[in-house]
Structures are given as structure tokens and as C-alpha cells.
Amino acid sequence: MIANRTGKTVIRILWSKDQEEAVIVIKGSHSLADWLLNFAMWKRSCNDFGLNYSIHAGFHYILNQESQPTHKKDQLGLSVFERTISIASALIESGKRIAVTGHSSGGAIGCIIADVLEQRYPKSIKRIVTFGQPAIGGYRFKQRFKLAHKTYRICCDLDVVTFLPPIPFSYWHVGKMLWLYNGRIYENTPSLVRFGRSLVSWLIRPFSYHLMSKYIRNKDFFDER
User: Fold this and answer.
1) For the chain, which residues make up each domain, given as ranges?
2) Residue 14 belongs to what H/E stretch?
3) How confident is the model over 158-217, as pLDDT tens digits?
4) How far apart are CA 138 and CA 132, in angstroms?
5) What angle do CA 112, 38, 31 make, to 5 degrees?
6) Which end of the chain is more exposed for a tag (fewer CB within 10 A), N or C?
């Protein structure tokens, strides 16, 4: 377990001696202070992480915040980023490959952690799967991120966080987007199309309840009487 500045667990790294894969699981925002970080929409350089691009300042802060020790062997003074990289590096050096998954801002910082590990240990990352993830960085980030072909962003219906930050052409997504909408999965649907379809669906939803199919679907209520 890896804790944040307040001692709350934000990252878990799971592995088994019998498995060749380890999994880094990252929580999203779970406090008002974390949610407010979403408004830090300026960019900060990732040179201190060994990456030649800039990302959302709020996500940079989450990675750079001091990590409170959770085990007796943990050292004081390490950041969330440093502690995660240290544990993951030891697992990679023992022969394991890494999968990364995270929700919301956890998905965003997971991409950065994975990119750093891939730079240091080529072909060490098996896949990245994120849920409801906001955009991370600018166009330079999009060009230099090495794991787009292994990254899958899962979006559900009109999840507003997946449209953040709301600054066109300033922030970019990476990887393949899988959109769960109306009982189907769509791949790489443009944001404007996704927003438009969701808005139309929301507007006509009250009228859809008038359809005979809706009454037929609920016929079991009458069959029980």
C-alpha cells in the first residue's frame, strides 16, 4: 500500500510469486482537497520524473506529494511517485511485467507512472486500463507518450470528467477510448460526437418511456398479480 500526504491509501501494488504480472491499482479523487486539484489546469514540467513533456499541475502535485509510511521498512521523505517507482522497479527486476489501472485522476497519474517505468525498463508495461480518466497533458505529451498502443480508456455514458480539462487543443487524451453507451461499446468516438449523442439521449429520454417496448419490458409486474 502507498499512502498520500494525509496517510490515506491511494495506490496498491498487487503481485503473487506464482504470477508473472504485477498490478498497480490507483484510486481517484476521494476528498474535497483532491477534487479542487482538478482546477489547477496550468501545466508543470515532468523533467523531475525524467520525462520530456508537461502535464496538468494538479496531477503533478498528486505524484509529488509526500507519501506517509505504511510499513515499518518505509522511509520518510519519499513522494508518492518515488515510493511507487521503487516498489515497481524491484518487481520488474525480479522478472515481472506491470499492468496499471486507475479511476479518474488515478488513471491519469497511472499513465505517467507507467511511462516512467517503460523508459527505465523497456517492454516492462503490459497494459494500462483507466476508467473515467481526464486528459493529462498537451500535444507534446501526446506525441512523446510511449504507451498509447497499450492504453485503454473506458468512458461510461456522459461522464463529465472525461471531458476535463475543458480547454480545447490544450489538453489531449492518449490510447484507445472504449465508450460504454446504450448497451454497446464504441471505439475512439470523438468528444464532440460523444457529447452530442449523450445530450440528445438525455433530452429524449422522458419520451422514450412512452414507447410500448417499455410497457412490455415491465409486464412481469402485472403477471405477478
Assistant:
1) 2-189, 190-225
2) strand 9-14
3) 888 898 998 888 999 999 999 888 778 889 888 888 888 777 777 766 665 555 565 566
4) 19
5) 100
6) C
CA-CA distance, 59 to 108, in Å (whole number)?
7
Predicted local distance difference test score (pLDDT) of residue 74: 73
How high is the pLDDT of residue 205? 65
- Crossing angle for the helix pair 57-64 and 80-93, to the nearest 10 degrees: 70
Strand locations in 108-173 (E): 125-131, 151-156
Fold of 2-189: Rossmann fold (3.40.50)
Instruction: Say what the pTM is.
Output: 0.85
Joined grid coordinates for residue 17: 510469486
The neighbouring-strand residues paired with 21 are: 97
Angstrom CA distances, 140 to 96, 113, 153, 209, stand at 30, 17, 19, 46
Q: Which residues contact 2 (CB under 8 A, 6 or more apart)?
A: 9, 10, 11, 12, 13, 67, 70, 80, 83, 84, 87
Residue pair 134/114 in contact (Cβ under 8 Å)? The answer is: no
